[in-house]
Design goal:
Layout (H helix, E strand, L loop, with lengths): L1 H28 L4 H28 L4 H30 L1
């Protein structure tokens, strides 16, 4: 059970850091122009929506029993990996 609490705490911290990173990138998007600016803002809004869903799921995971936890942990990790990879793609495209 302690592993679950530690994992959930770390994931919550990761989500908060990603939220901060999205906000910083969004502020930087103000320097972009035209279609690039609109595209970046849309992609960041989509990412923020996905982040909100991840936060909701994380709350649901807090009540998971030991048997259920292992399956949920795998889904949570995949979700985090996908979310952070999406952010990195957006960030890399914005840096160009």
């Amino acid at each position: 059970m302690e592993e679950q609490k530690t994992y959930l705490k770390r994931m919550a911290e990761n989500l908060e850091q990603l939220d901060t990173n999205i906000a910083e990138l969004k502020a930087g998007a103000e320097k972009a122009t035209g279609q690039a600016k609109a595209d970046l803002k849309r992609r960041l809004e989509d990412l923020r929506s996905t982040l909100d869903v991840a936060r909701q799921r994380l709350e649901e995971f807090k009540g998971a029993g030991a048997e259920e936890w292992e399956a949920l942990k795998g889904r949570a990790q995949k979700g985090w990996d996908d979310l952070s990879a999406d952010f990195e793609k957006i960030k890399a495209k914005h840096k160009k």
